[in-house]
Amino acid sequence: MSNVLEAQGLKKGYQNFTALKGLDLAIPEGAIYGLLGPNGAGKTTFLRMVNQIIEPDQGHLYFSGEEMTPAHARKIGYLPEERGLYKKMKVGEQALYLAQLKGMPAAEAKEKLKAWFIRWDLQSWWDKKVEELSKGQAQKIQFITTVIHEPKVLIFDEPFSGFDPVNATLIRDEMLRLHSEGATILLSTHRMESVEELCTHIALLNRGEKVLDGKIQDIRESHRSNTYRLVYRGEGPETFSIPEGVTASPKIADAKTGHHAVTFKASAPLSGALMAQLAPQCDPISFEEVLPSMNDIFIQTVQA
Amino acid sequence: MSPFLLVAQREFLSRVRKKTFLLMTVLGPLFFGALVIVPPLLSSMSEEPEQRLLVVDHSFLLVGTDHIGNTLLDYLNPEEFSEEQAIEALHSKEPFDGLLYLPASQNGDPDFILRNVRLYSKNDVSMDAIRSIESTLEAMATEEKLKLRGVDPALVAQAQTQVAIKTLDFTENGTEESALGLKMAIGFGAGFFVYIFTFLYATQIMRGVIEEKTSRIVEVIVSSVKPTQLMLGKILGIASVGLLQFLVWVVLTALIVVGIAASGLLSPDAAELATNPAATGGLPSEISGTLSALNVPLLLSAFLFYFLGGYLLYGALFAAVGAAVDSETDTQQFMLPLTMPLVITFVVATQIVEDPNGPLAYWLSIIPFSSPIAMMMRLPFGVPWAELALSLTLLIAGFLFTTWLAGRIYRIGILSYGKKVTYSQLWKWIRMKP
To answer: Where are the alpha helices (DSSP H) in B325-384?
Structure first.
């Protein structure tokens, strides 16, 4: 899979701090790429560079293998964290203006916008002023104007902040639809659950540096801690006979089902042997390896 | 269409379509028309109200005079009325506004009479009436004095002379009347317009930038348009609004003034004043029609150039201020030093038109921050080509510089929220890579 975006040695310094310290990043075509990191990690700086709003002090950016030029801006849709609309402008006019700025001919833009407005039940707002829109409606307009020119790469900076659950779901579904139609999505967020739900790849930034990146499954695999979880019917024994070097947690009862669960921690991968040894000792329901959540990995990596 | 032109088009249309624009564009000429027409109209209407005075004239100086200006004089027999009796008579007689008392002369000295003239006023006697009575009495006393010395007053009147120097300029066609007053009026007017327009439209740029920042649209826009293009597009769009409004104003004002003058609504005097603005300054009417003494095409093109130059120079800086702040209330600290040169130039306007080739006028018309106003004030008096060229070149260099400077502040300022910006920070922004 080729990379649609590639950063090489990006550096950027501000007055009092360094936002990026030589960032290398490769975003494969067709990925939903999550950009994670605490505040001040350099996520927004990187996104602004990709959108050519700011320039790196050093380093290079490539779009589908070509050095990034202003012409590439039209192949990108960007919904920044700080987003808004001209309040006094009419909704339709404004959407048309933003679409034209992305290089769409007026007629084509109008046709596509009308289709979106019908899909999201916004037709009656076309000639109204933006300030009359509800917050949710304004967010829908912002989303539409971000994707209207059908860009190859869609960039969302904290896309779910400020959305109510209904709209957040709507936006998430649209993202997945656009992804299935071939768009590569770059997502910056704090919300780990959306990362796990949506992303195929992630990069974790901290203090201007990349501390982790890759396919989400690979990362979780690489962070496996040889932790296994056994769920069984009834009380079961007070203590299990387990191989040496493995520790067991106290059993935990599930009040609703009456099942019990015990977590085992080994020093090396051990699932087959452990399962074979445990099964005869109880009436098992499930045995699985517990992979760390992205949240755990995030906190663990940033704190380390 | 290029993004730059799209931005300019949006700025233009979003302003031109506003109701306030339509209102200002229509009301502006009415306002300017009124400014030209109302003062002469008022002065042509303000005739002195008629007043009636009782007169006791022991000096017999006013003999035979039944009115002075609009003041009617009714004489009481001086042999029957003393000053006190006349005062009583004034109170008992209704239609009189006051009593004018002239004492008898002593030793035939007219000055004694004039020193002791008294006016008792029942209803307030107007200052105008008092002034005309004074000057009539002065003239009569002078005549008396001349007669006393055996001089014929008619001879003195003949000997009196008025001098009005006609100033002439050398031109290609020989010499022409220089019409100083008209030049001063035009210089003032043009300078004033450049001043107002620069302020009006440069402030609009600043407001527009602040609006984009506070509504958080700006980052979306700069992902499609370079920040400098956005800034320049905005400046161009608003300049077009200014030019359109100015054009409409000029045409409408001219139509209104000419229309009113032609309809004969005004007295001939006032109409002449209205169509010849120079005359409103109380200038002799001989200078009307001396527009030929002025290089009108040069004046007009210079006006256009200096308006645009000044607007671009200040507009860019105002845009930078808008980008640096979060709300309009924070602009004060940057606005004061920015507007200083404009305000100072306007304050010393009188000195500039009175000595258009003096060092003050010269330097102010060369320095780009003040030249749009100062040069427009000097131009009607004639400015050497070399000086004009220097001033224009420096103005172009000036706005290229401020645009560059403002662009550097702008591109960083529009994405900075929340912190109050200081001058030292602005300096860092200017030096920073985008």
So the answer is: 332-347, 349-354, 359-366, 371-378
Which residue is listed with tokens 């997945």?
A176
Q: Per the CB < 8 Å rule, is A54 touching B211?
A: no
pLDDT band at B35 (very low <50, low <70, confident <90, very high): confident
The per-residue pLDDT for range B99-158, each reduced to its tens digit, is: 888 888 777 777 888 888 888 888 777 888 888 888 888 888 888 888 888 888 888 888
Query: Amino acid letter at B415?
Result: L
Structure tokens at B268: 């001939």
**Do the Cβ atoms of A140 and A120 come closer than 8 Å?**
yes
Mark whether A43 and A174 lie in a shared domain.
Answer: yes
User: Residue B191 has what pLDDT?
Assistant: 86
Q: Are B234 and B8 in contact (CB under 8 A)?
A: yes
- B416 domain residue, yes or no: yes
How far A262 CA lies from chain B's nearest CA (Å)?
A: 51
| Distance between CA atoms of residues B381 and B401, nearest Å | 30
Q: Domain containing A204: what range? A: 3-220
- Number of structural domains (chain B) is 2
Residue A143 to residues A136, A158, A171: CA-CA distances in angstroms?
Answer: 11, 12, 8
Kindly determine whether residue B215 and residue A84, on different chains, have CB atoms separated by under 8 Å.
yes
Q: B434 and A87 in contact by Cβ < 8 A?
A: no
Residue B14: closest C-alpha in chain A: A89
Inter-chain residue contact B433 with A55, CB threshold 8 Å: yes
Note whether B399 and B202 are within 8 A (CB): no
Structure tokens at A263: 């977590």
Query: pLDDT at position A99, please?
Result: 95
Name the nearest CA neighbour of A23 among A201, A211, A152.
A211
Which stretches of chain A score pLDDT less than 50? none
- How crowded is residue A159: how many other Cβ atoms within 10 Å of its Cβ? 27
